[in-house]
């Protein structure tokens, strides 16, 4: 047997013992260095947008942004579900979706072809307070995009066949929503907070109501609620200002002014007790804990965002750490501030195992009560502030993200300085301020609680809750 074969048969320790190989010299492990400290979050650069107003009331904002040769043109009209009457639920949604289904000058197919030729696709949306239609195109086609949005918004044809087709799609959407406990909980919460006498309290139409909408009803809602006086046109991205402004004036100056903006601010109600929707045999309960919050126009609104994030607004929040990580009651709890014009509410949402529904609510209220009594540690607050500041800057790193922020400040009557100082405002919040805000806002006797689940299994568990909430 030669030396190579012998080495192949013997283990390395044996070879070293025989002196046939030498032990490798191991280099010393490098000393671990601490990562560099994170830099202080940067503020958003000052927004230098050009603004003007047409004689018919249309407000225009032009904001150069970025280096990529693309631009977003979007028209936002302050008309949404809040303008619906009790027998018109989702009529605003139907009108919004039909805007891109043909105009008096082009069919839906022709609109799509024109949009594609510009390098984009028309998109529409309807919210409680606004309807918007927009497109992102190559910069060189910005004037043509303006003309296309003008055609869609000013001359909708509402073809009868498309009215029926879109209604069918909406009927399917309602059916799907009503099969989901989360949607049912949101509907019950809205009714609990606002009542069915206000549009915010009416979430889904009945099948009969939706089927009854005619082309005439669609056209009448459009005429009564859509016009230049409620509109804001945004152009964000790379574009030549002079040709774009010329295109805007040519395309929109002849649009009817239409109705003035109106506000329909609700008076929130307090449930005083748990609102139930029974789902016999359900293995999970969907819960909502809600309370009136500060609207965006409040000087403490950003501070409220910090409060929400710390409690349940991101993955490392207190409620998530408690009922998901520690207890294992829920997979993805979250909280949010739902904002409307001069109105808002805070809600903690969770889907929890039926057997621990009462304990989950108890733990949520315990986290709220703890913050009401004790300021959070500086380190915990700093993590929340860094998260919010970073997320804000990331959102504004895109044309659509920045445009969405512009729409937010304009809808709520805020100055651009709100955006420019947002990071600074977030980072200046103190633990004591959060505790004081929680003590003032998150009062248990002012909360509305909704549970969608097995009533027979859940109701006995509510003995763990404070007496006013059982």
Automatic annotation (TrEMBL):
Residues 70-196 form the Peptidase M16 N-terminal domain. Pfam families: Peptidase_M16 (PF00675), Peptidase_M16_C (PF05193). InterPro entries: Metalloenz_LuxS/M16, MPP/UQCRC_Complex, Pept_M16_N, Peptidase_M16_C. Residues 1-27 form the signal peptide. Keywords: Signal. The keyword Signal applies. The keyword NAD does not apply. Residues 214-387 form the Peptidase M16 C-terminal domain. PANTHER family: METALLOPROTEASE (PTHR11851), PROCESSING PROTEASE (PTHR11851:SF224). This is Insulinase family protein. It comes from Myxococcus landrumensis.
């Amino acid at each position: 047997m030669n030396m190579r074969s012998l080495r192949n048969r013997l283990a390395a320790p044996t070879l070293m013992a025989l002196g046939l190989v030498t032990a490798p010299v191991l280099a010393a492990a490098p000393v671990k260095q601490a990562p560099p400290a994170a830099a202080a979050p940067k503020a958003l650069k000052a927004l230098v947008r050009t603004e003007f107003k047409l004689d018919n009331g249309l407000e225009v904002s032009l904001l150069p942004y970025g280096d990529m040769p693309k631009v977003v043109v979007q028209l936002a009209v302050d008309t949404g579900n809040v303008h619906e009457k009790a027998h018109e639920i989702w009529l605003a949604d139907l009108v919004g979706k039909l805007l891109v289904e043909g105009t008096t000058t082009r069919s839906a197919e022709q609109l799509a072809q024109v949009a594609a030729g510009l390098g984009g696709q028309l998109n529409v949306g309807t919210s409680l307070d606004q309807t918007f239609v927009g497109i992102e195109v190559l910069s060189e086609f910005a004037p043509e995009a303006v003309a296309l949005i003008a055609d869609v918004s000013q001359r909708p044809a509402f073809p009868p066949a498309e009215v029926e087709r879109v209604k069918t799609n909406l009927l399917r959407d309602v059916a799907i929503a009503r099969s989901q406990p989360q949607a049912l909980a949101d509907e019950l919460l809205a009714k609990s907070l606002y009542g069915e006498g206000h549009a915010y309290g009416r979430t889904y139409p009945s099948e009969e109501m939706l089927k009854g909408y005619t082309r005439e009803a669609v056209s009448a809602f459009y005429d009564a609620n859509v016009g230049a006086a409620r509109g804001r046109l945004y152009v964000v991205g790379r574009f030549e200002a002079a040709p774009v402004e010329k295109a805007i004036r040519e395309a929109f100056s002849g649009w009817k002014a239409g109705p003035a903006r109106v506000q329909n601010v609700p008076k929130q109600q307090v449930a005083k007790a748990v609102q139930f929707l029974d789902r016999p045999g359900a293995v999970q309960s969907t819960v909502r804990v809600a309370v009136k919050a500060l609207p965006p126009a409040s000087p403490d609104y950003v501070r409220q965002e910090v409060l929400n994030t710390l409690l349940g607004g991101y993955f490392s929040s207190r409620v998530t750490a408690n009922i998901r990580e520690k207890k294992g009651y829920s997979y993805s709890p979250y909280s949010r501030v739902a904002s409307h014009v001069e109105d808002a509410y805070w809600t903690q949402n969770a889907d929890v195992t039926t057997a621990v529904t009462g304990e989950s609510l108890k733990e949520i209220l315990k986290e709220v009560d703890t913050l009401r009594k004790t300021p959070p540690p500086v380190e915990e607050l700093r993590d929340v502030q860094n998260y919010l500041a970073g997320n804000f800057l990331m959102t504004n790193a895109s044309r659509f993200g920045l445009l969405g922020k512009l729409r937010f400040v304009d809808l709520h009557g805020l100055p651009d300085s709100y955006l420019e100082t947002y990071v600074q405002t977030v980072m200046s919040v103190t633990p004591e301020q959060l505790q004081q805000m929680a003590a003032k806002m998150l009062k248990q006797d002012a909360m509305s609680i909704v549970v969608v689940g097995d009533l027979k299994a859940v109701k006995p568990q509510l003995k763990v809750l404070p007496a006013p909430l059982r």
